[in-house]
Amino acid sequence: MNPRSRARRYCGAAFRRALRHATDGSAHGQPHTAILDTDRRGGAMSGQERLAALAREIIDANKYMTLATAGADGSPWASPVFFTPDGYRRLYWVSSPTARHSRNIFDHAAVAIVVFDSQAPIGEAGAVYMRATAGEVPEAEVEAAAERYASRFPELKYFAPEELRAPAPYRLFRAEVAEHSVLVRGSDPEFGTGVDSRRTVVL
User: Fold this and answer.
1) How far is it, in rounded angstroms, from Cα 8 to Cα 73?
2) CB atoms within 10 A of CB 152
């Protein structure tokens, strides 16, 4: 199969999965509006809508994100963390405040995040890149945010608010996403340039 045909097959499969999410409601109880609006119009999905649908699908389908932080001296650090999204512009996770990525966030709130499926076949992986500002959830919001964090999967441990405050060993963090972009294959039938690239999407 040539690269262009493979890209069409991959994007088509991703769209079908995303459309199923849209008609059922997303993993967070929110419909994928862009997909539903397109479906109601009865028209074809635009290329930008296709990429946005793919970004939502990747975030919904994956449990871990790679969190990139920097220390006070600018030294980079990357950590895999389990996350719960709240929509697509807010992500929650639980970490020790003494972990290096947490200490980095206390020093420098700007972070970068990548969500991707590491089990995808070679040449067919999708990825969502995010620029965000991260920090510990404020005291007044911990109770509601803890419920949100635990809501993603039935087997996920629920942390009571007192388990996320000093002197407990964990804290609840969140990232407020300012920008999403997706991996675009060099062979993408619409946006391909011959080499892999990123394209910004609005979620």
Assistant:
1) 44
2) 18
Rounded to 5 degrees, φ, ψ at 147 are: -65, -40
**Average per-residue pLDDT in the chain?**
84
Closest CA to 93 of 156, 154, 25, 31: 156
pTM of the predicted model as reported, rounded to 2 decimal places? 0.78
Token digits of residue 174? 């969140």
Q: The tokens of 173 are what?
A: 């963090």
Residue 18, in any domain of the structure: no
For residue 137 the two structure tokens come to 């959830």
Within 10 angstroms of residue 38's Cβ, the number of other Cβ atoms is 19
Interval 78-95: pLDDT, tens: 999 999 999 999 999 999
Q: Is 20 domain-assigned? A: no
143 in any annotated domain: yes
pLDDT digits (tens, 9 = 90+) for 65-74: 999 999 999 9
CA atoms of 70 and 61, how far apart (whole Å)? 27
The two structure tokens encoding residue 100: 């290096």
Q: Are the CB atoms for 119 and 160 separated by under 8 Å?
A: no
> Which of the residues in the chain have pLDDT under 50?
1-41
Helix (H) or strand (E) holding 132: strand 127-136
Q: How many domains does the chain have?
A: 1
